[in-house]
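Hi Y.,

Following your request, here is the sequence exactly as I used it, all 372 residues.
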Amino acid sequence: MAITVRTITTEEHVAFNREQPSVSFLQTPAWARVKSEWRGESLGWFDEGGKQIGAGLVLYRQLPRIKRYLAYLPEGPVIDWESDDIGAWLTPLADHLRRQKAFGIRIGCPLVARRWHTETVKAAIADPKLARLSQASPDVVNHAATRTRNQLRSLGWRPPDSEQGFAAGQPQYVFQLPIADRTTDEVLKGMNQLWRRNIKKADKLGVTVRQGTVDDLPAFHTLYVETAERDHFGPRPLSYFRTMFDALLAEDPDRIRLYLAEHQGDLVAATTWVRVGDHAWYSYGASSTAKRDVRGSNAIQWRMITDAMIAGATVYDLRGITESVDADDPHLGLIQFKVGTGGDAVEYLGEWDLPLNPVLYKAFDLYLKRRR
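Below is the corresponding structure, written out as tokens. Let me know if you'd prefer a different format.
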């Protein structure tokens, strides 16, 4: 089958995404408005009969002083990743991006490669002989992902070096809670004892969770900055979140939500929730240093989970985790918090690079490393 790739309109892109069961919110046209430092383009894949069979959002980042670009498709494109001939889909993409003066391409394959259930993750954390989740036998292996990985390598694609300056892409390992065809009682029962106790405690102490509006973003951001200082990461400015809400809500009035957990008039936790189709994500979170004992973080997560179920989502995605399960890893607590929900650790096939001009590709890498 001969597949062609060409630019499509925002309306065509939105219409295609609407017909899919699940598309990453990073592959919606609205996301290009959020990432204003990049130039966005919507692409469509078409079969020989002219039917659209795929779509993708490309973000272009220019090399300084030269009109050449890195082309990035975060968690995309939306194509048949289990195809027997992935080259038929990616070769016309590379041809199109060459014509757009791209010196390199990064894609994010959303194909699940392996999955570890809750008890397997817990056992891996408890086993002192295991340092990484990949050393534990997975409960589910997708052999189609193995075939796609081999095809990508044969076509010249390669996983990005973890030390690359522009490797701040999307997580390869995430934690997901399956919620399809389950009742809230069943989901709650699947959580560990600590999660159930903390949800009950928050309710008993009078923690309330409400859905906020864009007018509540300043309060969220104040708490988010406090969280960033405590956890030692660089916070995004308030303007970023205003832009995110404006862009995503313009595309779909229920694409993104803000939640706030309060106790006796004090904001103790705040989060953002995103949904596309049957996939809901916990996106950003913040919590106060004071009143940690009222368990606002558990209460707000439980509200987002139950709201995702009401909205018809089949998966609630708690986003990234590290692969490390080493007891000395400072990120272990994040995995332990998420595994308490009773979900699965998931490995995606992840990000892959195709250098179209290796010299410029390396130069761009060095440029961004110096900016870090």
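The CA atoms of residues 174 and 320 lie 4 Å apart.

Thanks again,
Q.
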